[in-house]
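Predict structure. Input: Alkaline phosphatase family protein, 89 residues.
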Amino acid sequence: DIETAARRLVERELDALVLSKAEAIDRELWGPGEYGEAFRERCGDLLVVPRDRGVWYERGHLGLVGMHGGLTREEMLVPFATARLSELR
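Output follows.
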């Protein structure tokens, strides 16, 4: 089928992890919990995630200041803090 052929091509040509939408959800790639219908409609059928520090971009069209989305420790562990607005001074 087309999904299997696409997966094989990407895995052969790129150093990447290729997951179906269901596999990515099962692995809790976006964290635990339920995913709504809007998410499922917008999420691609196959997700391609760089295994190492690779970057893919359209030749001659690199207008972004930063990039993210890898599976390195630095990409996945992001500091996060919360506070009530009433407690901030």
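The CA atoms of residues 2 and 40 lie 20 Å apart.
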